Amino acid sequence: MKKTEILFGKILFLLLVGICSGNLPAAELTPQTEWDYAKARHLMVRAGFGGTPQEIEKLQKLGLQKAVDYLVDFKKLPEAGNAIDVKNDKDRAIEILTKLSKESGNDSYLEVIKNPRELRKLGEIERKKFSRQMRRMDSRQMAQIQEYWLSRLVKSPRPLEEKLVLFWHGHFASEYRTVRSSYAMFQQNELFRKEAAGNFGVMLHAIIHDPAMLRYLDNNKNIKARPNENLAREIMELFSMGVGNYTEKDIKEAARALTGNGYNRQTQQYVFNKRAHDDGEKTIFGKTANYDGDSYVDLILEQPATARFIARKLFLFFAHDDPSEQTIDQLANVLKSNNYEVAPMLKVLFRSEEFYSKKTMGTQIKSPVQIAVGTFRDLGVTNIQCRVLSRGLKEMGQELFSPPNVKGWEGGRNWINSNRIFIRYNQMADLVDKIPSTDKQKGLDMVKVLEDQNFKTSEEVIDYLTKSCLVVNLDQEKRELLIKSAESLPPSSRWKKQRKQVNKQLRSLMILLTSLPEFQLT
Asked: What pTM does this model have?
């Protein structure tokens, strides 16, 4: 058996012992009063996805107060820069019908552009052909939108903005296969970006007008004669208040308030159908009036449970799973006193002692997005083909725009259960070893990643990579295993002359690193 295979076996054994037994390693902390590199890295990883040692050092030099301001006040920073042209159903239909008419010489397709009702007059074969091409084109556009967002996740100079977009996507979960409109999903993604650290109240109002959410929770079927309770229930249970803070009567009455909130299927724009709306009096949370959807949301924002619910959700996402009630009350008070502006609450959280405590640092299991995007961020790699990254995330269980249900992704140990751990390991190995770059090179160009460093020994290479990629200290046994796997590496001054072989060795080293229990933690 080859030496590399033996090392892989040892690392895999450590992985299973460290993760599957439940004995995840804990981080070693410096005194709470000290703002140091470890805390700066923790902030960069949790309030984003990570960064190179050089980026962490710059953040550390700012000091805690300015570092938090720099990340949270991201509107002051340049935008990501990448753009995408997204077409709604109407525009796509015009494009396809024009193409079909030109290919077939059948002017009937052009009549459909003028009057969509003319589609019924086409033959069955023509209608099926049109429908098939619409689905295919929409599916391709959805893939392009996934790549667009992944590119932002990897490259954006506003990491917290994209981290919050990911949070809101899991919080206000809706799924493409049900919505069946890439344009509607894109609009929702842009909404989450616009209000990422903005106002939760504005966001909640926008959600009841959001075509993707209206379609996902069937509010387009919510009419006066047959109220549909899906959106009314989930807004309170999952989006704003939590179980136990409302009654079944509140749900029924709220559903009546939301009647008539629909959307145009061709343009994916919000439409209020006055004839479908129940304009009678409703009693919600003990108050009676002629409520509509927006006044119902106003009632939710008045409830004491709402600020606590959102404060808790944000704390769990950014910190740890066991906050004290006192901590949640303090954060909720900041949120409510700032009229539901999220940024002030985040600043308090990111400057709090609890955010840098033993319960928080190095204790969160990375989601597939965190582990993959974080790896590229930590290494400073931006020139990857996001199509391949998207496939890898899907295999690991986190396909963007496709959460499993309205509750979003469960997270935590579900990411590393017995069904997923080997898939996770193999997918990360493939991303390191095979992901194409935008210049069509296969695999990460580790020589380029490390070209500005001056390594004389394999120990220096290992120490740099662990500093770049880990928030949890390695024990000596694992460190020595990694050093041994890199012992044949020449000094970095000779890497360019042996680029192909050195890259192969460095990628094998990165694959070993990604399989460690410590690498799974953030």
From this structure: 0.93
